């Protein structure tokens, strides 16, 4: 999701000096310094991804994650690894030095058995075992936080102007960025190591390749949902091309032997049955071109051609006509002061804003200001538009666009913010993974009709279960649905 640029060959080359030892599980043990680094970053990462889930599903993920992590050689003790199931609708997994491993609930839901869960966790642990993050930190230290913002489509607009505060609430630390993006050679090495971890834990070594197939299909589906004829996977810039990566994982699996390779599909499906899927209404939801937040009791829409990404504390908006974020900040009762504080928080390049002008939007008190800033040598327009929702609560947009355009098309979004009715808020409900048994008359079409979505029900069902469009279902088999 967020990644730095690929490493140079010079930085990546030393990684393979230890690959021959790593492939046999002889990684250097976790050091005290790495444990300290991981402990310092842990809570921030958890917060960034919606918090940690608890209960039986989290306990199951922790058990499998610890089991596969011990195959790396970092430690022989399962307790040395802190495995967290994150309350996030994105498809992501990562690990950081010190024995900290993370996976999001929606990525777990995309899996179809325990071996695939182990494969994903093994891949992330392999990055740590190979000390890939040391190279990433070297690169990160040479990049300003604005370089990282550029990966979100925000910082590139400002270069080194100092306007990094714009996205502070949705941008991870440099240490986090360091853990979330790797070079192609590092990804390949981690895939290879993950296959060996699977074999040493008696899992089917083909599980990595089948999981990669599901990820490729999910990325194509997400592209279709966004109206794209063809979707390039988000990790394509640093990961090997999907088809090649799948083939290599299959080839690597053929080089290892497992007497009784296990998948543990039934145990896996039983464990994830009832797990939340998609966005958590407590953090707001995106439906088409609308964002709805039942807890705040508000909604807004973005113009056609703009996309939204919902973070823990901010919604990022991007389109060809400009970019924006929707967030909140401490409010002391005066909108003019609130707007001025937001402007100050943007950094050194955002100065000279006029006093906020007052207005109302759909009956909600509002205030706004616009200023000119510099992106390197290029002037840009910044608009801050804030709303008072309650005596102690305000929210705001910050938009960025080329100089002279003001907020452009996003001005429509300013006027779209409204209060949700109690009935509208009540209709925003969480979705859950439900495991059902295929009946004698069930077909993909009949089962997918039960999916809690207004569109692409069949496509969502097929991808979720890694099924082909014309694949027949066998009575007695278990499949996943997403329902209310």
TrEMBL record:
CDD domains for the chain: M48C_Oma1-like (cd07324)
Cofactor(s) the record lists: Zn(2+)
Protein name: Peptidase M48 Ste24p
Domain Peptidase M48: 57-251
One example of a Gene Ontology biological process annotation: proteolysis involved in protein catabolic process
Signal sequence coordinates: 1-17
GO molecular function, one term: metal ion binding
Organism: Sphingomonas lenta
Family matches, as InterPro entries: Mito/Outer_Membr_Metalloprot (IPR051156), Peptidase_M48 (IPR001915)
Source taxonomy: Bacteria, Pseudomonadati, Pseudomonadota, Alphaproteobacteria, Sphingomonadales
Any one of the GO CC terms: membrane
Matching Pfam families: Peptidase_M48 (PF01435)
UniProt entry tagged with the keyword Transcription regulation: no
Protease recorded as keyword: yes
Keywords annotated in UniProt: Hydrolase, Metal-binding, Metalloprotease, Protease, Signal, Zinc
């Amino acid at each position: 999701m967020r990644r730095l640029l690929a490493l140079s060959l010079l930085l990546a080359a030393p990684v393979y000096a230890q690959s021959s030892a790593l492939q046999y599980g002889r990684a250097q043990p976790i050091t005290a310094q790495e444990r300290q680094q991981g402990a310092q970053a842990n809570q921030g990462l958890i917060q960034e991804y919606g918090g940690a889930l608890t209960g039986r599903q989290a306990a199951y993920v922790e058990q499998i994650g610890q089991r596969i992590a011990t195959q790396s050689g970092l430690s022989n003790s399962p307790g040395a690894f802190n495995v967290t199931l994150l309350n996030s609708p994105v498809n992501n997994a990562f690990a950081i030095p010190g024995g900290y491993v993370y996976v999001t609930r929606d990525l777990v839901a995309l899996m179809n058995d325990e071996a695939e869960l182990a494969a994903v966790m093994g891949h992330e642990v392999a990055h740590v075992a190979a000390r890939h993050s040391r190279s990433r930190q070297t690169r990160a230290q040479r990049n300003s936080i604005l370089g990282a913002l550029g990966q979100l489509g925000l910082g590139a607009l400002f270069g080194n102007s100092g306007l990094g505060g714009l996205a502070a609430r949705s941008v991870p630390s440099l240490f986090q960025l360091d853990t979330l993006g790797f070079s192609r050679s590092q990804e390949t090495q981690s895939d290879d190591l993950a296959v060996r971890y699977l074999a040493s834990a008696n899992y089917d070594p083909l599980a990595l390749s089948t999981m990669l197939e599901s990820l490729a299909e999910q990325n194509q589906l997400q592209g279709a949902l966004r109206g794209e004829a063809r979707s390039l996977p988000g990790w394509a810039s640093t990961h090997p091309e999907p088809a090649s990566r799948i083939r290599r994982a299959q080839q690597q699996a053929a080089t290892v032997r497992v007497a009784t390779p296990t998948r543990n599909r039934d145990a896996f499906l039983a464990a994830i049955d009832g797990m939340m899927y998609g966005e958590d209404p407590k953090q707001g939801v995106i439906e088409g071109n609308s964002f709805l937040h039942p807890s705040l009791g508000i909604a807004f829409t973005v113009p056609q051609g703009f996309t939204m990404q919902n973070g823990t504390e901010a919604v990022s908006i991007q389109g060809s006509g400009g970019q924006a974020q929707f967030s909140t900040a401490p409010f002391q009762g005066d909108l003019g002061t609130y707007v001025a504080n937001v402007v100050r928080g943007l950094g050194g390049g955002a100065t000279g804003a006029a006093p906020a002008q007052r207005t109302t939007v759909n009956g909600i008190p509002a205030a706004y200001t616009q200023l000119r800033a510099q992106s390197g040598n290029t002037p840009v327009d910044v608009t801050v538009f804030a709303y008072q929702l309650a005596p102690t609560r305000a929210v705001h947009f910050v938009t960025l666009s080329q100089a002279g355009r003001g907020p452009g098309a996003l001005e429509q979004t300013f006027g779209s913010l409204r209060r949700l009715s109690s009935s509208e808020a009540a209709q925003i409900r969480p979705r859950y993974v439900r495991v059902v048994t295929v009946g004698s008359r069930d077909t993909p079409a009949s089962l997918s009709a039960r999916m809690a979505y207004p569109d692409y029900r069949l496509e969502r069902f097929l991808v979720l279960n890694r099924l082909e469009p014309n694949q027949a279902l066998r009575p007695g088999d278990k499949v996943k649905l997403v329902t209310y």
